[in-house]
């Protein structure tokens, strides 16, 4: 085995255990029910299915999002906080804008002993940060011979902790092919109030499961990953609202341009498969979807006896329906145990 090939294989092991430590978090809740998913698209990226190194690893992520919406998304928030009754003979023109700055802390433990021939790991993600939103709307009601107009301008912000997100994975490797399965969930312990137009928690629990694949060729340094999953949402008892079942697909492609630097592209697809239900679903099924694409760059470096990875990626969203859209950026710093050193030749004498 050549030194360059071995170096790239070692990089793949590093990235599999640090860069892509799963960060399953929800975005700041613009509209507490419709258009907000428990799963954060973009959670998985390059080398997602590559087994990592046994032991503890830690990822810290700074996440910034800036989104806006109008139409049903903004109207749904007015409905939830009791500012608009959709059964009235009236029309509502509204817009909502929001920004969030969140920090994720994701410790993960990877077991050395295989389970079903796979490498197993468990971990969780905690969230802390700040988000703010503004909603502006005009309600027009006709009562012949008069026309009544009411304008709303609501601004809100929240700081604190978000929900807690545990995750477990199993990963298999066979040459350039890598597979994984995972299960995750949302423990609704974050800051949430149904009367706010923005929250850090989503007000209900969920469970998510899926699988993924990574192709990585250490000879060429070329990589491609895709992870898909389904989310089942439990009922929000504060609003009697239950989101439908969500489908999500995260994908990424990268190319090593040196032993330490890689560049590439990332993206995701999110699509709600079934409609929302409950007495709180006053706007009907309210199925939502969105797609996104963007660039990424990463750098691998030693930190004493450990290995560090810096990764930046950005997503621009499009083709949104019943969901706010905009852009979001991730800056990840992760550390883990280093891969084993390359074998050295030995001179045997008699």
Summed up, what is this model?
The chain has 350 residues and is mostly beta strands. The protein contains 2 helices and 13 strands; from the N terminus they run αβαββββββββββββ.
Question: Could you explain the architecture of this structure?
Answer:
The protein is mostly beta strands and 350 residues long. The chain is built from 2 helices and 13 strands, in the order αβαββββββββββββ. The chain has helices spanning 3-17, 72-80; strands spanning 55-70, 90-110, 119-143, 146-161, 165-174, 177-186, 206-217, 222-233, 246-256, 261-272, 289-303, 306-321, 325-336. Strands 1-2-3-5-6-7-8-9-10-11-12-13 form a 12-stranded antiparallel barrel. The two termini are 27 Å apart.
How is this fold's topology laid out?
Layout lengths: L2 H15 L37 E16 L1 H9 L9 E21 L8 E25 L2 E16 L3 E10 L2 E10 L19 E12 L4 E12 L12 E11 L4 E12 L16 E15 L2 E16 L3 E12 L14
Key phrases:
7% helix, globular, 54% strand, disordered C terminus, single chain, 350 residues, 2 helices, disordered N terminus, mainly beta
Strands, total number: 13
Alpha-carbon distance between the two ends: 27 Å
Report the structural category: mainly beta
List SSEs in N-to-C order.
Answer: HEHEEEEEEEEEEEE
């Amino acid at each position: 085995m050549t030194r360059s090939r071995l170096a790239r294989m070692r990089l793949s092991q590093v990235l599999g255990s640090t860069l892509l430590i799963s960060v399953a978090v929800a975005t700041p809740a613009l509209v507490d029910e419709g258009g907000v998913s428990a799963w954060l698209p973009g959670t998985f990226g390059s080398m997602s299915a590559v087994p990592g190194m046994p032991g503890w690893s830690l990822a810290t992520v700074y996440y910034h999002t800036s989104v806006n919406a109008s139409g049903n998304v903004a109207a749904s928030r007015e409905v939830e906080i009791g500012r608009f009754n959709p059964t009235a003979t009236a029309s509502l023109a509204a817009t909502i804008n929001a920004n969030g700055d969140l920090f994720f802390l994701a410790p993960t433990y990877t077991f050395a002993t295989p389970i079903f021939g796979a490498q197993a790991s468990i971990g969780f993600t905690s969230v802390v940060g700040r988000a703010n939103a503004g909603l502006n709307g005009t309600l027009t009601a006709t009562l012949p011979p008069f026309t009544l107009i009411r304008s709303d301008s609501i601004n809100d912000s929240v700081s604190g902790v978000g929900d807690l997100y545990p995750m477990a994975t199993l990963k298999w490797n066979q040459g350039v092919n890598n597979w994984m399965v995972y299960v995750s969930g949302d423990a609704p312990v974050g800051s949430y109030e149904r009367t706010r137009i923005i929250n850090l928690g989503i007000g209900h629990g969920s469970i998510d499961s899926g699988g993924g694949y990574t192709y990585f060729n250490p000879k060429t340094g070329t990589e491609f990953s895709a992870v898909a999953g389904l989310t089942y949402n439990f009922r929000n008892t504060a609003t009697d609202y239950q989101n439908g079942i969500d489908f999500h697909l995260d994908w990424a492609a990268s190319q090593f341009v040196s032993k330490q630097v890689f560049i590439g592209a990332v993206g995701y697809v999110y699509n709600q498969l079934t409609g929302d239900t409950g007495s709180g679903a006053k706007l009907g099924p309210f199925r939502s979807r969105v797609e996104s694409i963007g660039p990424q760059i990463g750098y691998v470096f030693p930190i004493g006896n450990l290995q560090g990875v810096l990764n930046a990626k950005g997503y621009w969203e499009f083709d949104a329906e019943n969901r706010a859209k905009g852009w979001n950026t991730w800056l990840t710093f992760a550390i883990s145990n280093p891969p084993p050193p390359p074998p050295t030749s030995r001179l045997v004498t008699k």
